[in-house]
Amino acid sequence: MYQFSDETAFSRNIGWFSNSEQASLKNKRVAIAGLGGVGGAHLITLSRLGISAFNISDFDIFELQNFNRQSGAFCSTIDRKKIDVMTELALDINPNSKINKFNEGVNDSNLDDFLRDVDIYVDSLDFFCLEIRRKVFAKCREKGIPAITAAPLGMGSAFLYFDPNGMSFEEYFDFGEDEEDNYIKFLVGLSPSLMQVKYLISDGTVDFTKGKGPSTVIGCDLCAGVAGANAVKILLNRGTVLAAPYGYHVDAYLNRSKRTYRPWGNKNIIQKLVFNIAKKRISKK
Question: 88-104, pLDDT tens digit by residue?
Answer without folding.
Answer: 999 999 999 999 999 99
